[in-house]
Amino acid sequence: TSIDTLDILVLAVLLLGSIAYFTKGTYWAVPKDPYATSSLNGSALKKGTRNILEKMEESGKNCVIFYGSQTGTAEDYASRLAKEGSSRFGLKTMTADLEEYDYENLDQFPEDKLAFFVMATYGEGEPTDNAVEFWEFIQADSPSFSESSDEKPLGNLKYVAFGLGNNTYEHYNSMVRGLDKILTKLGAKRIGAAGEGDDGAGTMEEDFLAWKEPMWKELQEEMGLEEREASYEPAFSVEEKEEMNKEDPNVYLGEPNKNHLEGSQKGPFNASNPYIAPLAESKELFTVKDRNCLHVEIDVSGSNINYTTGDHIAIWPTNAGMEVDRFIKAFGLEEKRHNVISVKGLDPTAKVPFPTPTTYDAAVRYHMEICAPVSRQFMDTLAEFAPSEDAKKEMKKIGTDSDYFKEKVANSYYNIAQAVTSVHPGPWSSVPFSCLIEGITKIQVRYYSISSSSLVQPKKISITAVVESVRVPGAGHVVKGVTTNYLLALKQKQNGDPDPSPHGLTYEITGPRNKYDGIHVPVHVRHSNFKLPSDPSKPIIMVGPGTGVAPFRGFVQERAEQAKRGENVGETVLFYGCRRKEEDWLYKDEWEQYKSNLGDNLTIFNAFSRENPDKKKYVQHDISANSKLVNDLLQKKANFYVCGDASHMAREVNEVLVELIGKERNVPKEKAEQIVKSMRSSGVYQEDVW
Ligand code: FAD
C-alpha cells in the first residue's frame, strides 16, 4: 500500500507539473477580470486606435474603404461599396475616414486584404479637409513607412480607386489621379480602372455605377471571390424603446451632440459641434418674381468663435416640415414618428450617423438629406420592399436602366419620397429604417463666404445668399433649396412678415426642445486661404458677379475701414455683375459709402447682363475692356481674386486673363498661360468658387 501511496503522490506531482506546463502558469497568475482587461487594452483603447491594420484584424475585416469626403458624396459611395462588397462578394468590409488613421504601416498591409480609396478633389486640386494629413504623408518624396525602405514599399498592397471631381476645374480629379500614380510608383497594385466621376457634367452617379461593375469583375477574378445573390442586410439595428418617451431628457430630439442635449454649449465650435447663434439681423437684398437674396447677420459674441475676412461660415440646416411629412408618410412612419428608437451598428465598424436614442421624426428632420437627388442604385435596393409586385418590377427597371431612371426620376428632380410615391402611392412600410439611414446621406452643412470684415465687426458674421428655387420644366413643381429656404423662414419670422412660411414650407424654427427659440441658427466657422494681402497698400482686383460678391463686400468693407484709420490702402478694383440695375444689384447703396472712404482708390465695374437684351454683358467683358488697367495692377503686384460660379464664370475669367496678359505683354499664349499658372501657385490668383 505504501507504494500505492507513493505512486499516487508521484502521479499527483507529475499531474500538477503538466497542468502548470500546459496552462503556462495561468492558474498561478493573479486572476484577471476579463472585462477590465478588455476595457483597458481592448475596446476602449482599440476603438480609438489609429492603426488600421490592428483595427481590421480585431474586427475581422479584409477590406477597408477609405474616403476623402467634403460634402458627403464620397463617404456615401464608400458606404455603398462596403455594403455591396459584403452582400455580393462576401468581403468583410469597413469604411474608414482618412482622418482617423495613420499610414506609416501601409507597407505592412497584408497581401490577402484590400484597400479602396474613394477620393473627392476639392477646390483647386486640393484634398478634402479630412484627407489633408493622409495626402501630405503619401505624396512626400519618400513617405516614411515604418518597415520597408526599399523602392517598392507597398508591394503587398492591392487597391481600388475612385475619384469625385468636377471637369470645370483645371485640376479635374487630381486627387485620385495623383494618388493612383503615387501608389503605383510605390509598388502597389491597382485592381480595375481608377474611376472618375464628374460633377461638372452632372454624371457623377452614372459614372460611379458604370465604373463599379467592371471593377467588381476584375476584383472577383483577382481575389477568387464568388458572387452570390445579394439581398438586403441591415447595417444597423433599430429598436423601438417602448419604455421611453420623447420627453425623456436623454432622448435626442435633434440636438447635434451630448453637450447640446445636456443644455450647455461648450466650445470649441467646429464641424462636429455647432454654436447655436442668435440672428442679429436679417433682410432681403432684393425680391423679384421667383428670386430673392438674403443678408443675414449672425451674432457670435456669446462664443469664442473668431473669423478673419474671407473665411466661410457653415449653416446647419433643418429640413422643411412639408418634406419631413412627405417622407414620414411615404415610408409609413406616421403613427410612430415620435416613438423613441435606439440605433446601433450591427458591426463594430458601422457608425450611426446621428446620436441616439432619438425619434424617427428627429432623425429625418435634423439628420437626413431627404430632399437631395435620388441615387439610381438606391431605387434598385428599395425594389425588394415595394408594396406590390408591379411596383417592384418598376423599381427594378428604374434601378437598372439609366435612361429610364432619367425619364422617371432625375428629369423631374424628385427627392426620394417623391420618387417612390410616383411609382406606388405607398405607404412603403416594409422598408427597414436601417435601409433608409444607409441609403440617404446624412444632412450636410452648407458653407457661405462671409460677407463682412472681421476688422469692422469681429463678432458679427454676415452672409449673402440667394434663395434656391428651381421651377422644374414640365414637372409642375419647384425644388426648394434646403438651407436657403430655412434661412428665409428665419428671416420672415424675425421680421414678423405676413407669410412666415415661405412657399408653404414650415420649419421647426424653435429647434429641438425650443433651444433655437428667439431666432437662433446652428453654425461653425471654417478658416480659408482666401485672404487679403497682409500689406493693405498692395492693390487688389476682385471678380465677383452675383453672390460671388459676398467675400468682396467684406474685403472692401475692411479696406474702407483701414483707409478711415489713416492706413495707406492700395487700389481696390471690383468687377461686379448682375442682371439689372434696378433688380438685383447687391449692396447698391453701400458702395457709395465705401467710396467716400477709399476715394479714387475704389473702382467698381458693373456688368448688367440684361439691361441690353441684344448685347449681354458679363464681368468677363468688363475685364477684357479694361485689360490695360488689369495688367498694370498685376505688374504692381496686385492680388487677383475670383468668387462665385465655378462652372462657367471662373473658367472664363481665367481665359480672359490669359488673353489680356498675352495682349498687354505681347507674349505668346503658352507663355501667358504659364504666367497665370504661376500666379495661381504663388497665391496671387485666388479662387473661392462653388
Ligand atoms: P440645396 O438643397 O443644397 O439645393 C441646391 C440645388 O441642388 C438646388 O437648387 C437644385 O438645383 C439641386 N437640387 C436639390 N434637390 C434636388 C433634387 N431632388 N433633384 C435634383 N436637383 C436637386 N451660396 C451663396 O448664396 N452665397 C455664398 O456666399 C456662398 N458661398 C459658398 C462658399 C463655399 C465654399 C461653398 C462650397 C458654397 C457656397 N455657396 C454660397 C453655396 C451654398 O453653400 C449652398 O450650396 C446654396 O446656398 C444652396 O443651398 P441650399 O441648401 O439652399 O440648396
Q: Quick summary of this structure?
A:
This protein has 690 residues and is of the alpha/beta class. Helices cover 35% and strands 19% of the residues.
Beta-strand fraction estimate: 15-25%
The low-pLDDT segments are 16-46
Domain count, please report it.
4
User: Helices and strands: which structural class?
Assistant: alpha/beta
Distance between the termini: 97 Å
Q: Which bin fits the share of residues in helices?
A: 25-40%
CATH architecture of the largest domain: 3-Layer(aba) Sandwich
| Average of the residue pLDDT scores | 91
CATH class of the largest domain: Alpha Beta
Quaternary assembly: single chain
Q: Given the structure, what is the number of helices?
A: 23
Largest sheet: 7 strands, mixed
From the 3D structure, determine the CATH topology of the largest domain. Rossmann fold
The CATH homologous superfamily of the largest domain is named: Flavodoxin domain
Care to count the β-strands? 23
Backbone CA Rg: 29 Å
**So what's the overall shape?**
globular
Ligand kinds: flavin-adenine dinucleotide
Walk me through what this model shows.
This protein has 690 residues and is an alpha/beta fold. The chain has 23 helices and 23 strands. It has four domains: 2-31; 52-223, Flavodoxin domain (Rossmann fold); 237-260 and 317-439, NADPH-cytochrome p450 Reductase, Chain A, domain 3; 540-689, Nucleotide-binding domain of ferredoxin-NADP reductase (FNR) module (Rossmann fold). β1 (63-68), α5 (73-89) and β2 form a beta-alpha-beta unit. It is globular and about 70 Å long. Mean pLDDT is 91; it is low at 16-46. Flavin-adenine dinucleotide binds next to β14, β15 and α17.
